[in-house]
């Protein structure tokens, strides 16, 4: 799960979303309004910006898979009472997610006792603040704080009933990336002992690492615990 900071929308797209939201707020059916709006040319920049935020491979912002990726609502638009339909066209409520994650999450959206979301929103926060990578299993797990308490957001986000972060196929992809990153670093250390030019070593390492990243794992390896 990688951090995908939100990009600003152009004015015309912001106004388009606002107008659609007003239609829903006035009482029109949220599903029908969403379906209609999704096929309008004015909606295209929404998808394009989410794809750009998700990184070069435009994958699911939750699990990192590339199959059936489409626009997802962080706060579900169907959730009752009527609160979440009022966020259906909020730019900051839209993410990019795969079919499987969308299906599992459905209209569920766990909250803590103070009514704060328990799912990580990768556009608002860095997932690695709540998660760690487990090299032995290639799964993601909740991060523990200094007092020995697991991150509630990390626990909820890795719940297999809600999202597919730890499905076997995803862990296999993560494992391949982990091994490639390790090989790239080990190769560099070996060549360092052979007195190769540091500039060449650095260039080769950066190239190999850029190709090896999967779903923000590179950040965990080089800038976090790894
Ligand atoms: Zn997914």
List keywords for this structure.
226 residues; mainly alpha; 2 domains; two-stranded antiparallel ribbon; 42% helix; globular; binds zinc ion
Q: How would you describe what is shown here?
A:
The chain is mainly alpha-helical and 226 residues long. The chain has two domains: 11-105, no CATH class; 127-223, no CATH class. It has eight helices and four strands. It has helices at residues 11-25, 30-38, 44-53, 99-105, 152-157, 168-192, 198-212, 217-223; strands spanning 70-73, 94-97, 131-134, 139-142. The two termini are 15 Å apart. The structure holds zinc ion (ZN). Residues 60, 62-63, 65, 97-98, 100-101, 164 line the site of zinc ion.
The largest β sheet comes out as: 2 strands, antiparallel
How many strands appear in the DSSP assignment? 4
Mean pLDDT: 91
**Structural class assignment:** mainly alpha
Number of helices: 8
Low-confidence stretches: none
